[in-house]
TrEMBL record:
Entry keywords, A to Z: Membrane, Transmembrane, Transmembrane helix
Taxonomy of the source species: Bacteria, Pseudomonadati, Pseudomonadota, Gammaproteobacteria, Vibrionales
Listed transmembrane segments: 20-42
Organism in which the protein naturally occurs: Vibrio sinensis
The protein's name in its UniProt record: Pilus assembly protein PilW
Keyword Transmembrane helix part of the UniProt annotation: yes
Length: 199
């Protein structure tokens, strides 16, 4: 009995090539989708990190300012509250600047502090000395924010006198606004701090 040979269809090789091409296209599409999802997630995470950076800088700065303002005028038991040289108020305000002095018991020196807005940056100017200095003499300053990343569009300070029959104090209101250099993630903080040391 004779066995007939089987002839494979001539188009089978071409069909396999088409299947390989389809599989390759599908594979590349899936890889592209995965990369797209990864990049999207990375952008979201990166943006979230930058927003948190802005908020964290605002929070840390306002907490530091609150702490300093509450020390303003402390004299270490001298019997009277301290003011900067030639100033009548414990907390001196001039435009977008605020300054004060307090006695630092650890160094036994007078700690001078000034916050000021210059351009679009917020600076702190500090000086320790054995004698009380003037508001204008506090000129050695440094940035409170990373100037390569953040700017400060606004910093405003105002005071409201608080009086009793025997003493005077003040409520200090300040507004601080910060954002990335490209204008994204603008956030602001408003805070009121009561001056602890009375005149």
């Amino acid at each position: 009995m004779a066995i007939k040979g089987v002839n494979l269809p001539r188009f089978q090789g071409g069909a396999m090539l088409v299947e390989v091409l389809i599989a390759s296209v599908l594979g590349l599409t899936v890889i592209g989708m995965i990369v797209g999802i990864f990049l999207s997630g990375y952008r979201i995470a990166s943006n979230r990190t930058l927003e948190l950076l802005t908020l964290q800088n605002l929070t840390i700065t306002t907490q530091m300012m609150r702490s300093d303002i509450q020390r303003a005028g402390y004299s270490g038991g001298l019997g009277h509250s301290l003011t900067l040289l030639d100033e009548s108020e414990i907390i001196a305000v001039s435009g977008s600047s605020i300054g004060f002095v307090y006695f630092d018991p650890h160094s036994a020196l007078f700690q001078h502090v000034k916050y000021k807005l210059l351009g679009n940056q917020l600076y702190t100017c500090e000086k320790k000395s054995a004698a009380i200095q003037s508001f204008s003499s506090l000129s050695r300053c440094h940035h409170l924010f990373d100037q390569n990343m953040l700017v400060v569009p606004s910093f405003a300070v105002s005071t409201v006198p608080l009086s009793s029959s025997s003493a005077q104090s003040a409520m200090i209101h300040f507004y601080l606004e910060a954002e990335l250099r490209d204008g994204r993630f603008n956030h602001s903080v408003s805070m009121s701090v009561k001056q602890r040391n009375w005149q």
